[in-house]
Design a protein that fits this description.
The complex is a heterodimer of chains A (about 425) and B (about 300). With about 425 residues, chain A is mainly alpha-helical. Chain A has two domains: about 70 residues, no CATH class; about 300 residues, Orthogonal Bundle (ABC transporter involved in vitamin B12 uptake, BtuC), CATH 1.10.3470. Helices cover about 65% and strands about 5% of the residues of chain A. Chain A has 16 helices and four strands. In chain A, the strands form two sheets. A two-stranded antiparallel sheet of chain A has the order 1-2. Chain A has a two-stranded antiparallel sheet with strand order 3-4. In chain A, β1 and β2 form a beta hairpin. The radius of gyration of chain A is 25 Å and the shape is globular. Chain A starts with a helix and ends in a 27-residue tail after the last helix. Chain B is mainly alpha-helical. Chain B has eleven helices and four strands. In chain B, the strands form two sheets. A two-stranded antiparallel sheet of chain B has the order 1-4. In chain B, strands 2-3 form a two-stranded antiparallel sheet. In chain B, β2 and β3 form a beta hairpin. The chains are: A mainly alpha (about 425), B mainly alpha (about 300). Chains A and B meet through α1, β1, α7, α12 and α14 of A and α2, α3, α4, β1 and α9 of B.
C-alpha cells in the first residue's frame, strides 16, 4: 500500500469519525428547566477525527510491518506443520505446567510480604470470578450450551444462604450444600423445558430467566426485602470458632484458639482460603468428570449432536446434568459471595455480571482451565486498577473485550484437544487439528 | 390496547434489526439495543439544534429529525459492524457474541460520558388526540402521536417488505441468508450486503428511538438494554430470521406488556413477557412463524 493510499484510507476513517462525533460529541445538552438547551463544542469532534486519523495511519503501518516480518505469504499446501504462536504453545501446555504454578502462587499469596488487606481482598474477588468461570465452563466450554443467565444461579445461591441464615439461623457450612442443591434444582427446572431447543433459543431463554430472577428478587419484598437488600448476613466461623475480638460466653474466638493477637485480617485470609478451596474443588471436579462417561458425552454433544443421538446418548438428559452441575457451582459461589459481603441486593446480579462471566470463559479460551484464571484476573483487575479514571473504566472495559476478541478470536489460551485419542494415532502429531 | 399496539410497533421495529442480522450471519447482535439508544439520543439532540436554529413548524422538524437520525444511526450501525464484527467473520460462534457484548458496554459508556448520565427531557411536541369512546367513568383516547407512530411503523414495514422482496439488495440479502459462499461465488458482494443489512437495521432502530423519545419524552443512556432485550424476545417469539415473525412478535410482546400492566401488576410485566416466550418455545420450538430447521449430518 502506497503512502498516498494510506493517507486516503486514514482520511476516510477520520471523516467517518467526525460525522459520528457530530451529534453526540459535538453538542452538549444542558438542562435549563424548560426545553433542553444545547451548546456546541466542535473542538471535541476535531479531537476525535484527529485521533482516529493518526490511529488508522499507525494501524496500517503496523499491518505492513507485520506482513514484512512474517515474510512470504503462506505456502498453498498447508500440510506443513503450522507455525504456532507463543500463546497457543503455552495453551497446549497450560493445564500441565501453568496450573500447578498458579495454584502454588495462590496458596502462598497471603504469606507474601506485599499481601496486605487490599491485595487479599482483591484476590478473593478474582477467585470468586475464577470459580464462576469454571462453573460456567462446564456448561459453555464442555457441553457447548450458551448460557446468558448464569448470574441467576449465583443469585439463587446467595439468597438461599442469606435467607436460611437470617430466618433459620443456618451457618455458612450448613447452608453451602443446600445453596448448591437449590441452585441445581433451579437449573433442572429451567433446563427441562428449554434444553430441547436449539442453542440460540437457549441463550435467550437463559437471558430471560436471569432477568426474571432479578425482577422477582426486586419485587418480592416480603421475603427478599426488595431493592434494600438483605443485611446482617452471618459471617463464617472457623469451624465453630468465630472471628471476633470479644466472643460471647462459652465460645472461643479464632485468635484465642491459636493464641494469636486479634487482627481483622484473619477473617479476610480465612475467606480467601475458603474460596480458594471451593474453586479448586470445582477445578478438580471438572478435570475428573471429563474422564468419566458423562463428561465425554458432554464433549461429544458439543461437537456433534446428531452423531450422539445415533450412538444412543440422550441429549436432553446429558445437557440437563451439565446445566445442573454448572448451576450448583454457581450456587456455591453465590453463598460464598453472600457470606463475604454480609450484604446482598438484586443490584449485584444484573445482566452485565452474566456477560462478564461469559466473557471470562470465552476470552480464556473455551475449555481451558488456566485460560479462565488469566481472563478472570484480567477482567477483574482492569476495572480495579483503572479506578482513578472511574468515568472511562467501563468504556475501556468494553473496548478491551472487543479488541481481545478481534486479536484472538479463539481466546487467550485456546486449545481444544480431544481428551481421548485412538491409540493407533501417532501421538507425535504435534497438537494437530482441533 | 392502543398503548400496547404503540409499544409493540416500537419493539417490532427494533426486532427487525435483530432478526435480519441473525438471518444473514447467524449472530445475536447485542449492541443493537445500544444502537436504538443512540438513535434516540441523536433525535433529542437534533430537536434541540433545530430549536436553536429556529425551525419550529412541527411536521418539518419531525421530518428533518427523522432523516438526520436515520442517516447518522445507520452510519453508527455500519461502523460497529466494520470494527467489531467483520474481522471475526468465519471464526467460531461465540466470538462475535462477546465482541458484541463488549461493543454494547462501550457504546453505553460512550454516550454516558459524552452526554452525561442525567435523564434528558423533551418537550411534548405533538399534542391532542381523538376521543374514540366515552364511557361513564373513562374515555378512550387515541392521541395524534400514537397515530403517527402506528402509521409510520406500518409504512416502514410495508416498504421494508417490498425492499426485501423486490429490489436487488433484497435479493442479495436473501441469497446471503441461504448460502453465503454460494452467493459470493455468484458475484454478490457479501461483505457489502451484510454491512447494508446492519445499516438498515440501525435505521429502523433509529426510527424506533425517535418514536419512544416523542412518546415518553425522556431519554437516558440506559434505555437500550431493556428495549433490546424485549425486542430480541420479540424476534425469537416470532421465529428468528423471519421478518413477518419479528413484526408479529413485537406486537404480541407490546400487547402482553400493556395488558399485564393494566390488569395485574406493572412490576411483573417483564416476567410475563418472558414466561410467554418460554411457553411458546416449548410448544413451537422455532417460534410462531419460524421455519423448522432440518439439521443434516
Amino acid at each position: 500500500m502506497t503512502f498516498a493510499q494510506r493517507l486516503r484510507d486514514a482520511g476516510l476513517a477520520a471523516l467517518v469519525a467526525a460525522v459520528l462525533a457530530l451529534p453526540l460529541l459535538g453538542f452538549e445538552t444542558i438542562d435549563t428547566g424548560g426545553p433542553l438547551g444545547i451548546r456546541a463544542r466542535f473542538h471535541w469532534i476535531a479531537y476525535a477525527a484527529v485521533s482516529v486519523f493518526i490511529g488508522r495511519l499507525a494501524l496500517l503501518a503496523f499491518f505492513d510491518w507485520w506482513r514484512l516480518r512474517q515474510g512470504r505469504p503462506e505456502p498453498l499446501q498447508s500440510n506443513a506443520p503450522a507455525r504456532k504462536d507463543i500463546l497457543t504453545r503455552i495453551g497446549s501446555q497450560a493445564d500441565k505446567y501453568l496450573m500447578p504454578a498458579l495454584i502454588a502462587f495462590a496458596i502462598a499469596l497471603p504469606m507474601m510480604p506485599f499481601a496486605d488487606r487490599t491485595v487479599v481482598d482483591l484476590a478473593t474477588v478474582v477467585l470468586i470470578y475464577v470459580m464462576l468461570g469454571w462453573g460456567l465452563n462446564i456448561v459453555v466450554g464442555l457441553a457447548g450450551l450458551l448460557d446468558l443467565g448464569y448470574v441467576a444461579f449465583y443469585a439463587v445461591g446467595a439468597y438461599t444462604y442469606a435467607l436460611l441464615s437470617l430466618n433459620f439461623g443456618f451457618g455458612f457450612w450448613e447452608a453451602l450444600p443446600l445453596a448448591g442443591l437449590f441452585a441445581a434444582t433451579f437449573g433442572i427446572i429451567l433446563g427441562f423445558p428449554v434444553l430441547r431447543l436449539r442453542g440460540d433459543y437457549l441463550a435467550i431463554v437463559t437471558l430471560g430467566f436471569g432477568e426474571i430472577i432479578r425482577v422477582v428478587l426486586l419485587n418480592w419484598t416480603d421475603v427478599t426485602r426488595g431493592s434494600n437488600g438483605i443485611t446482617g448476613i452471618q459471617r463464617p466461623s472457623f469451624f465453630g470458632f468465630p472471628f471476633t475480638s470479644s466472643p460471647e460466653d462459652g465460645q472461643t474466638a479464632f485468635h484465642e484458639l491459636f493464641g494469636l493477637e486479634y487482627s481483622s485480617i484473619h477473617r479476610i485470609i480465612f475467606l480467601y482460603y475458603v474460596i480458594l478451596v471451593l474453586a479448586l474443588i470445582t477445578n478438580l471436579f471438572t478435570m475428573r468428570i471429563r474422564k468419566l462417561p458423562i463428561g465425554r458425552a458432554w464433549e461429544a454433544l458439543r461437537e456433534d449432536e446428531i452423531a450422539c443421538k445415533a450412538l444412543g446418548i440422550n441429549p436432553t438428559n446429558t445437557k440437563l446434568t451439565a446445566f445442573a452441575i454448572g448451576a450448583m457451582f454457581g450456587g456455591f459461589a453465590g453463598s460464598f459471595f453472600a457470606t463475604r459481603q454480609g450484604f446482598i441486593s438484586p443490584e449485584s446480579f444484573s445482566f452485565i455480571e452474566s456477560a462478564v462471566i461469559l466473557a471470562i470463559v470465552v476470552l480464556g479460551g473455551m475449555g481451558s482451565q488456566a485460560g479462565i484464571v488469566l481472563a478472570a484476573a484480567f477482567l477483574t483487575l482492569l476495572p480495579e486498577l483503572a479506578r482513578e479514571f472511574s468515568l472511562f473504566r467501563m468504556l475501556a472495559f468494553g473496548a478491551a473485550m472487543v479488541l481481545i476478541m478481534i486479536w484472538r478470536p479463539q481466546g487467550l489460551l485456546a486449545h481444544r484437544e480431544p481428551t481421548l485419542r485412538l491409540s493407533t494415532q501417532p501421538s507425535s502429531s504435534g497438537g494437530g487439528k482441533p | 390496547m392502543i398503548n400496547g399496539v404503540t409499544l409493540g410497533a416500537v419493539y417490532a421495529l427494533i426486532a427487525i434489526g435483530y432478526t435480519m442480522v441473525y438471518g444473514i450471519i447467524g449472530m445475536i447482535n447485542f449492541a443493537h439495543g445500544e444502537i436504538y439508544m443512540i438513535g434516540a439520543f441523536i433525535a433529542v439532540i437534533s430537536f434541540a439544534v433545530l430549536g436553536v436554529v429556529g425551525i419550529t413548524w412541527v411536521p418539518l422538524a419531525l421530518l428533518i429529525v427523522l432523516i438526520v437520525s436515520m442517516l447518522l444511526t445507520g452510519l453508527y450501525g455500519w461502523t460497529v459492524e466494520r470494527i467489531a464484527y467483520r474481522p471475526l467473520r468465519g471464526s467460531f460462534r461465540l466470538a462475535p457474541l462477546i465482541s458484541a457484548i463488549g461493543m454494547s458496554i462501550f457504546l453505553q459508556n460512550y454516550v454516558q460520558i459524552a452526554q452525561g448520565a442525567r435523564i434528558k427531557p423533551l418537550q411534548p411536541m405533538v399534542r391532542g388526540g381523538i376521543e374514540l369512546m366515552k364511557g361513564e367513568t373513562f374515555t378512550v383516547t387515541l392521541s395524534y402521536l400514537q397515530i403517527i407512530i402506528i402509521v409510520v411503523t406500518v409504512l416502514l414495514m410495508a416498504g421494508f417488505s417490498w425492499l426485501i422482496a423486490a429490489t436487488p439488495l433484497g435479493r442479495a440479502q436473501r441469497a446471503c441468508e441461504q448460502d453465503r459462499i454460494m452467493a459470493a461465488l455468484l458475484g454478490v458482494n457479501t461483505d457489502r450486503t451484510i454491512s447494508l443489512t446492519f445499516v438498515l437495521g440501525a435505521m429502523l432502530a433509529a426510527v424506533a428511538g425517535l418514536m419512544t423519545t416523542l412518546y415518553y419524552g425522556v431519554v437516558d443512556f440506559y434505555i437500550g438494554f431493556l428495549a433490546g432485550l424485549k425486542a430480541f424476545t420479540a424476534a425469537v417469539l416470532g421465529g428468528i430470521g423471519s421478518l413477518p415473525g419479528a413484526m408479529l412478535g413485537g406486537m404480541l410482546i407490546g400487547l402482553i406488556e400493556a395488558f399485564w400492566a393494566a390488569y395485574f401488576s406493572s412490576e411483573y410485566k417483564d416476567v410475563a413477557a418472558f414466561s410467554i416466550l418460554v411457553i411458546v418455545l416449548i410448544f413451537r420450538p422455532t417460534g410462531l412463524l419460524g421455519r423448522p430447521e432440518v439439521e443434516k449430518v
